From TrEMBL, chain A:
Domain of life: Eukaryota
Gene Ontology MF terms: cyclin-dependent protein serine/threonine kinase activator activity; zinc ion binding
PANTHER family linked: CDK-ACTIVATING KINASE ASSEMBLY FACTOR MAT1
Protein name: RNA polymerase II transcription factor B subunit 3
Entry's Gene Ontology BP terms: nucleotide-excision repair; regulation of transcription by RNA polymerase II
Coiled-coil ranges per UniProt: 166-251
Keywords on record: Coiled coil, Metal-binding, Nucleus, Zinc, Zinc-finger
Cellular component annotations (GO), alphabetically ordered: transcription factor TFIIK complex
Organism field: Orbilia blumenaviensis
Domain RING-type: 30-73
Annotated CDD domains: RING-HC_TFB3-like
Classification via InterPro entries: MAT1/Tfb3, MAT1_centre, Znf_RING, Znf_RING/FYVE/PHD, Znf_RING_CS
Subcellular location: Nucleus
UniProtKB/TrEMBL annotation, chain B:
Region (Disordered) residue spans: 48-80, 361-405
The Cyclin-like domain, residue ranges: 98-180
Protein name in the entry: RNA polymerase II holoenzyme cyclin-like subunit
Species of provenance: Orbilia blumenaviensis
Keyword flag Flavoprotein: no
Similarity annotation: Belongs to the cyclin family. Cyclin C subfamily.
S-adenosyl-L-methionine in keyword set: no
GO process annotations (BP): regulation of transcription by RNA polymerase II
GO molecular function per UniProt: cyclin-dependent protein serine/threonine kinase regulator activity
Amino acid sequence: MPSITNSTAAAIARARENAINRGGDADEICPVCKSSRYLNPNMRFLVNPECYHKMCESCVDRLFSQGPSQCPVVGCDKILRKQKFRKQTFEDIQVEREVDVRKRIARTFNKRQEDFPSLKEFNDYLEEVETVTFNLLNSIDVGDTEAKIIAFEQSNKSSILQNAAKAAQEQQFALAQREFEKEQHRKAKEFENEIEAEEKRDKAEHKANLLRALEADNPDAEVAKVNRLARKKSSMRRENQERRARELEAARNAPAFQFMANLNRVAEEAPPEKFDPVDGYDETNRYFVYRDKYESPWLDDYQKDKPTLAGGYLFQQYYERAIFEAFSGVGCFIEDPPAVDAEGEPALQASFDTPMIDSSV
Amino acid sequence: MEDQLYTTTTQCKTWSFGPSTLATIRANTNAAGTRSIKRGWKRARVEASTANTPLATTPIPSNTPTPVPTPSIDPLSVPDPVTLTPTEELTLVNYYMLRMMAMSDGFGFPSSVKATACVFLSRFHLHHSVHAYHPKHLLTTILFLATKTENNYLSTAEFCKRIPKLTPEAILKYEFKIAGGIGWDFEIRHPLRGADGGIMELLSALASPNGDPGIQVLKEKLGQDPIRRVTNAAGRMKAHLTKEALVSDVYYHYTPPQIFLGALWLADKELAEGYIEWRFGENSTMGRVVKKKKKDRKGKDKVTEDDAAVEAPKAAPLAPKLIPTVIACAEMMQKAQEYEKFTVDMLKKIDKKLHQCQNPQKFLGAGSPIGIGNDVPKKPSEDGPPPEKKRKAEEDLFGGSLHGN
């Protein structure tokens, strides 16, 4: 039936054309063999972290089964291997690449804060690592950066291994801890159910007892007896429950392993220095003592001046300020600092010497 | 606490230098200024050699003492101008400082405004060469800034009324530059109020009938009428503080109390010496007289006096170290008096040199004036581009309009 085949072929061509033109659905078509998902619903796309060019599984099989070979994308001269191909995790290929790079960097640069004497140095280290990562991501000085990474790897082989082992161990502990918590949770739930059931049973029993007591010859005395019994039983039960709850609680709070308590504890730092709100200043005056009244001929007029006084001018404050300033700094002697002379000066120059001519050049 | 508080001020931290440091800073600033002049001339030379019509654009004042370029002169043959030395720069700054003092007195501003303005000018030119900023363009701005700083605000309109041909724009033009140039350190610790305080205390001590032994010694030293003598000395001291202290470098080298004592030393040497001995000498009670007196009044006996003496920190007396400092300070102020004696001729010579440095266009026939003050209103094209650019950037807050829209 040639006519049907023709129309099918045309439809396929149209679909392919559409898919290509739409752009957004470009991932529906393998860029290498141009076969579309329309024809092959089970098509899987794979990428190789060498160059991140996408192609379908059949292309990978076809091209790389014979061993490593060049990437089929035009202009890409990377040699790819079949076993390196994998499924893309993130939609954005840039993100995929960044995650790969970061994974790799994190494997090598796995120093921890404990390895550094202070937080500042640790932060400096982190920044350097981030610089390396950034360089790799944005292809800046790739050669230098790679050399640096390799040098670091060589010189820190043992510590990298150690830290990796440590991290694995920690992960195991965390897993164990999680398991333990789950178990505790289950136990608590069981306990709760048990209590509920017990209460229910007791209630039913109490009711039955009551009925039986009412049937007896001396109902009042019997009822009182039953009630007493029930009260006693319920208080006993409550006591029992509380004890068990306490036990459970204790078990939950206790870590699964004894050393877990010490695992992530930060080393005790020296207690912070005592805070001094006035920063070491005191109110004692070395050179003088205030008086209530001073001889100040130039203020005599003002002291009788009504507008001044009505305005609330306090002569005492003027006195205090004037006397203070008379002695503030009298014991400071400004000299040429020999050491600072060399260092301090360029800084000064840099911050001030900005003639406008320079800026207009 | 007094000294401790002073050390926290910017005056102490940023603006106090030893003599050699100060000289180095001045030399560096001068070198930077010289460099900028050299650059400006180089640029002007290039412009002059590219301009083919030197005839049309060369207005040459014929009576200049500098080599007069003929219209056909080769711009490369005109030698670079001689730049000012740091000393000449300082002389020029100090001359304009005196001018500013006169201006402040004309306004009738209090002495604190005057003093602040002078310190601003001095500090600004410590880091900005006069080659780059001619002080004559900055005076009004600095004075205006000082009125604001010292809480003596006068509106720009009022301010301009008092000085002919002054516009608010001219005042505000350099305000930001100056404020930045003095490092935003507006608060100046003047010795003026401290001097008032010192005199006040001295007068009170002299007036009280029963003082400590130190004041008795001082009283005897001062002769017949100690109060009158102190008052007279205080008047002269104040004059020194509002003139020599500002013109000289004492604000950089000494603390306010030391400057005040230096001025007192200039005014009355004997009095200053006695005062220092009384306050900071071997047996000084550091003014703790009052405490005792109060207690005496309350009826307590002499035992408390001993207590107070024990209580007082027995530090080494300050006087032996203080007196040489004060003398040096006084000498520095004394030396500053010669600035007033500078002849007009000498200043004119300096200013002419600076004029040549800053105006290569007058000698080369091309180029633009150097330094901010030289915008000639008649030739807007010469100084045109920078203000144009600036204005455009200011007007178009969100950038220019998009083309094609």
